[in-house]
Structures are given as structure tokens and as C-alpha cells.
Amino acid sequence: MCTRCLWLDQTKDDYVLYHDKEWGVPVIDDHTLFEFITLESAQAGLSWYTILKKRAAYQLAFAQFDVQKVAAMGEQDVELLMSNAGIIRNEKKIRATINNAMAFIEIQKTYGSFANYQWQFVNYSPIINQINSKADYPAQSEISVAFAKDLKRKGFKFLGPTTVYAHMQACGMVNDHDNQCFRKSQIIEQYKGLDIASILANRG
């Protein structure tokens, strides 16, 4: 039987699948990053599993996370989303998602991609933390504080240091799988030769 992270409720198959296939894997694709940052924003104040269960509904509600389509949403769309029982019907969060899509696009214009902007905060290389107990899991970091402040300056909402740190964990900017988890070493081994800076530069 595989040893997994201490935080994971292994009675939930969908949670286990997310942990085993996605959490902590380096993401350099803007479409996925927009999905992740949107879901993390929706999660603020709630459990991640609450949002994970609603992920498919969010994909349908927000045009499969097509950032251009989300940025173009208007008042009628907000009204429809507020009546959508499949998502968190918090008007401020819904409006923040549309607002964040517009800010996301501006970053793409400035930096070539959101990935290029985001990964600069860790010098284009995942941080590997030493996690031996639940007490070792950071809630935020100096980097997430700086990242969140910069996102706020750029117009983003519902993305404070703790939410941003969760985003960093999810998309592999930090590898916070605990030291006994089978995924920690797998991810390190699989991505140890990944030159994120070069990949993103060549895309430009």
C-alpha cells in the first residue's frame, strides 16, 4: 500500500486521485494555471475538498476556464452564475473570477504568459520543503506574501498569502508532499531535469 500525505483523507477516492495525479506537479500551461488560481480563489474560507467536488460544475459554468470567455462575462452571466447550485454562489467571488480573468490577460500581455510571471517568484525551480508532520506544513511563506501582494497590485481579488500558497502547492511551485509520501520522490525524479525558464522563453 502506498504511503501518502498526512493531510489526505484516503476514504475519498476523488481526493486520492487529485493527490496522486495533480497536486504538486509543476504546471507551466496558462490554461491550467487559470483553472487552478480560479478554484483556489473560490476556495477561500472553505475546504479544498468542497471545491474539488464542484470542479466539474465550475468547468461548465466558466467556459472550461477559457480566460478570454470568462473575462468577457457580463451582468447577465453573473445572474446566471448566482442561480447555479453547482458552484459557490458568492457574488463577490463570482465577480472576482471575472475580474481576475481580465487581470490574468493583462499579465499575459506583459510577461508573455502567466506561467512566466508566476514562476519567476521561485526562480523557475520548484522549492522542495521537508515535511515530516502536519505541523511542518506551511500556511504561507515569504514568497506567497510577495506573490499575493503583487497580484493585488495587478488587480486580483480573493488571493491572499494563504490562498496563494495553496495555489503554489497545487501547481508545483513548492513540493509539499511529506517526506514519506510516494509522490514526493516521484515528482522530484520526473521533473529534476525540467528547465522551466528555457521552455517558457522558447514559447515566447
UniProtKB/TrEMBL annotation:
Taxonomy, superkingdom: Bacteria
SUPFAM superfamilies, sorted: DNA-glycosylase
GO biological process: base-excision repair
Molecular-function GO term, any one: DNA-3-methyladenine glycosylase activity
Residues annotated to bind Zn(2+): 5, 19, 177, 181
Pfam families assigned: Adenine_glyco (PF03352)
Keywords: Metal-binding, Zinc
Keyword Cell membrane: no
Zinc among keywords: yes
Protein name per the record: DNA-3-methyladenine glycosylase I
Organism: Pseudoalteromonas caenipelagi
